[in-house]
């Protein structure tokens, strides 16, 4: 089919192919982070956009996703035509993008995508924070991945669609609210609270501006579009200024056993989190990482040799120390080792002993500043080693089997822990 010239289309983003990407295929380049990953999304969506004529190469529609690119090619991504939308979705899309005059910023905000985001179970609890207007709090259900734009089912992909139903931030003038709304509908978001897929709860999300257009390339005849995509420094300063944002998480967990009376106090107890759970597999570099690990192992062996003699001379004293360390792992409030980010404040809210069951349960509120990811997994490990495993922990099937059938039917195989409290503050303590 014949597609209209690029001058009659609304250009969302435009890039010139770098020389290092010469010889690559069009579908590969479009999904690069420095290219159009925020607009294209998944691989299937990329193929659909190319075949529908939304990708132009050198001002001509390119419908072949396997096309080989050259270093001088200019690739452009345009907005969908009104005839391509179904159920009058184009009218609602133009209204959400700031009118039909082409002045708004567009992502593929069709009715189907918005409806799918509404059915996902995620929702925006607070559309903006007083500390940072570009930050917000969203709820993630069980089974949804928090980070990533490779799929339209992740929290980072769902939040921009959910924000379209919220009004502008209070206290802003009309121009600032319109620009911020356009950036939210066309920009990207970054999840600060990276909960596991199997853990539900609140996530702190920060909206990011879309990547700017190169100054040497045209903006497709829309100066308003180019200025909105480029962004204003006054609007982006709040996203990460002042040393970044500091997030405090509060988890609610149901654990097996009856915790001591000390855990019921107002101050609670301090739980030491394992430092080795800081995602060692996330580090990149094959040989370099292997050399670093060998150096660390050599240093550990030397330290063990240096501590070998005192351990033999003070065998009895160290035995008592080992018992004390186990007590700290169980939640001793006098923990002195480790940074505050590697500790968690645990306070018991309720202790129950059902009359129809001999297995007591306790409800805990766990507050921590740890932010290395997989935080729910680390908390499960620390509480399990402390003697109070979380209900339905897969490493504690025996404790779960001791619960009555009626209670197991209510739980339905879900891990009884969730992040239901998020406190955001400045990294410098302000």
How is this structure best described in words?
There is one protein chain. The protein has 14 helices and 13 strands. Helix 5 (111-119) crosses helix 6. The protein folds into three domains: 6-80, Structural Genomics Hypothetical 15.5 Kd Protein In mrcA-pckA Intergenic Region, Chain A (Roll); 88-241, no CATH class; 249-276 and 320-426, no CATH class. By secondary structure, it is an alpha+beta fold. The protein has helices spanning 26-30, 37-40, 43-51, 89-96, 111-119, 155-162, 174-186, 223-230, 233-240, 286-313, 315-329, 375-385, 397-401, 405-411; strands at residues 11-16, 55-57, 60-61, 74-78, 123-126, 135-140, 188-191, 200-208, 245-256, 269-272, 343-352, 361-368, 417-426. Strand 7 and strand 8 (200-208) form a beta hairpin. Residues 84-119, 213-243, 278-340 are annotated as: Disordered. Keywords: RNA-binding. It comes from Odontella aurita. GO terms for molecular function: RNA binding.
